[in-house]
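Hello support,

Our group uses your service weekly, and this is the first time we've seen a run hang past the timeout. The protein is DUF3037 domain-containing protein. I'm not sure whether the cause is the sequence or the server load. Input pasted verbatim:
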Amino acid sequence: MRLAYQYVVLRCVPRPDREEFLNVGVVLHCQSADFLDAVWSVDADRLKALAPQVDIDQVCEALAFVDRVCRGDERAGEAARQSLGQRFGFLKAPRSTVLQPGPVHGGVTDDPARQLEHLRERLVG
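Update from on-call engineer: The timeout came from a worker crash unrelated to the input. Re-ran successfully.
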């Protein structure tokens, strides 16, 4: 069965004024499969080449927060207590922090978890 999904690419934007970024993760939501998950990978060398001043630990902490929101972990606060759709809405909302979501994209799949991994490989590396 083909299932519709939405996803956002998570970008590390060390200096928003320069509009430079590095893709570091993907969040995928599939309402009909009751699925919300994130995968991420930070290439510290590439990120330091883009922005030597970036705090890699801060970026990883922000990505771990995204994981907690997806899982409904109470340490993520109010956002984690919402429905999956509301959590995805929270995660896809524009931010002015070092970790920002890109535009929302969509597609169809028969396996949301496998699609998420495919997107990570293709878009994050």
